[in-house]
Amino acid sequence: MDDYVVHIVDDEEPVRKSLAFLLTITGFTVRLHDSATSFLAAAPGLGKACLVTDLRMPDLDGVELLSRLRDAHAMVPSIVITGHGDVSMAVAAMKAGAVDFIEKPFEDEVLIDAIKRAAVLLDKTHDGAADASVVQSRLEQLSDRERQVFAAVVAGLPNKSIAYDLDISPRTVEVHRANVMAKMQAKSLPELVRMALATDFGDQRH
Fold it and tell me: At 185, which CATH number?
């Protein structure tokens, strides 16, 4: 873990210190930033790095931060931490370049595992093309209704809204959602979103 630095961006000092302590004792090299603006100032000289950023911050939110990094051609593998109810914003962050999002509250291992997955992208030999083809083959196993539910879920819509839009019951949405997770072999919502983005499926919602 010594060959890259994990940068933590959060406007709340207790959160920064807590995350820094967790990651440091796990073996990561950590740098702290109290705002997205201060991180952007350091971005040109980051080197080999991963980013962990809060979604909601007073100066720039996580989506805007990632958009500016992308515009500056200074993208680093990034993980967005979000509160409940921010799923649609978290999906927007992934479209802006985040590789994962984590909903609060979360277990320590969830963050550690996400950082390790992000770090894989620092290896220039990583090829996502094979991943996309696997995801596409799983997509083809979905029924039309399951594809509709899948698209709505990754757009950040809650079950009740999906049920209203599709004129079905919330319970039926839950069944379709469970089927989508099983057929796509996704263990979590972030993983499902990654699959959608890998095949541009998230832009196919009708």
Answer: 1.10.10.10
Cα 39 to Cα 19: distance, rounded to the nearest angstrom: 16
Same-domain check for residues 74 and 28: yes
C-alpha distances (whole Å) from 160 to each of 50, 156, 164, 171 are 36, 12, 6, 9
Predicted TM-score (pTM) of the model is: 0.74
Contact (Cβ atoms closer than 8 angstroms) between residue 137 and residue 102? no
Q: pLDDT-derived band of residue 123, with 50, 70 and 90 as boundaries? A: low
Q: List the one residue out of 84, 91, 135, 125 whose CA is nearest residue 105.
A: 84
How sure is the predictor about 17, in pLDDT bands with cuts at 50, 70 and 90? very high
CA distances from 91 to 17, 19, 29, 163 (A): 26, 23, 28, 20
Do residues 66 and 151 both lie within one domain? no
Parent domain of 199? 129-203
How do residues 46-79 score in pLDDT, each as one tens digit? 788 899 999 888 888 888 898 888 887 777 889 9
Three-class secondary structure of residue 100 per DSSP: strand
